[in-house]
Protein: dTDP-4-dehydrorhamnose reductase
Organism: Roseobacter fucihabitans
Amino acid sequence: MNVLVFGQTGQVATELALFDGVTCLGRADADLTDPGACEAVIAATDADAVINAAAYTAVDKAEENRDTAMIVNAMAPTAMAAAAAARGIPFVHISTDYVFDGSGSAPWQPDAPTGPLGVYGASKLGGEKGVAAAGGTYAILRTAWVFSAHGNNFVRTMRRLGAERDALTIVGDQIGGPTPARDIAAACMKIARALHADPSKSGTYHFSGAPDVSWADFAREIFAQSDLSVDVTDITTDQYPTPAKRPANSRLNCTTTTSAFGIERPDWRAGLAQVLADLTP
Ligand SMILES: NC(=O)C1=CN([C@@H]2O[C@H](COP(=O)(O)OP(=O)(O)OC[C@H]3O[C@@H](n4cnc5c(N)ncnc54)[C@H](OP(=O)(O)O)[C@@H]3O)[C@@H](O)[C@H]2O)C=CC1
Ligand SMILES: Cc1cn([C@H]2C[C@H](O)[C@@H](COP(=O)(O)OP(=O)(O)O[C@H]3O[C@@H](C)C(=O)[C@@H](O)[C@H]3O)O2)c(=O)[nH]c1=O
């Protein structure tokens, strides 16, 4: 199957590029600040499916760059979904746990009420709504806390800070499932194939790594597996002020992803070991 991917340099796009039949589009091929250009690329493609792995992902910066975040994360995916619908090919769109308000402690079901706390989450929710309303075959795959050997992510941040300091304070009251980018790429490919065969599987799905942990415990595991001796102290969200609010409860219930596509939650600790091996020269 030939698959057109928006995104080239990002964590998930880099992993998607490793699959046969995938063509990745960078900014020079399709700039998401120009939704019409994204639409035109799909109108001209002979691909069997489209995956959108590009997004404005700078959570704090989005607070002051609302317009760009909205165009890239809401308007561009909406235009892509319309173009894919017009061509009759499935569209897989990646979204985020940050569409939820983080209340409670139960894992969020895909049809649970949304309530983004910041601009990034609101812009991603706008994209979800546009994709679902476009009338084509689609999957919205919400994931969380993505990490890989390249790009910006918590693992690389912790490795950098851990090399400089012997003690860190990390938020311990935000809980979620760290997710290896490699597993997200594999899930997107499997879902694209399944939708191609059976459009009735269209809908919103969840996919995150297991077990759920706090950022502080995620950091502890990163240091343990890296043989770095760093003392991690839990702090509360209030003690780590940021421009954008983050959800306290980012747990995602992924059962419908397993029942519809046979995709299980990956153990992120194994994914972390792979990523650290890739990072070590
Ligand atoms: N990172 C995370 O922790 C999480 C991510 N997600 C979602 O997963 C998906 C993939 O995220 P991830 O791989 O981490 O993303 P990255 O932040 O690693 O990469 C973002 C990608 O989007 C591209 N991009 C940004 N703006 C534009 C633009 N205007 N035109 C063209 N390309 C653009 C970037 O290209 P360039 O290098 O040119 O800027 C880059 O390739 C996104 O939908 C994200 O919202 C969901 C949950 C968690
Ligand atoms: C660096 C650092 C961060 N933190 C906290 C801040 C925050 O609550 C948490 C994670 O910080 P980050 O800024 O790396 O994570 P953040 O950019 O918020 O990550 C999010 O990115 C977007 C794209 C998503 O879609 C989400 O799923 C999620 O992965 O760790 C500390 O407590 N101490 C520290 O020293």
The mean pLDDT is 97.
